[in-house]
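Write out this protein's structure.
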Amino acid sequence: MSETTIKQAVVEVKKLSQSEKAQMLYDDRQKALWIEKDILKTAIKKEKKETAIKLIEMGDTIEKISIATGLSIKEIEKLKK
């Protein structure tokens, strides 16, 4: 193997290593985004349930609460118990 070939191979390995690092950074970022999205979904669902409980206490109908919160009638009935 010539010295030039070895140098080219080293350069190529460095490129691939950088690509691998970049891929790892990308994957980590994607995981973080999925976690953030899940946390937001959970918080929104909790807020909807808290709103439904307040509306139940105020005497609103299950149908109205379902329309106002987007929760299903079954979900609201569980909250009433």
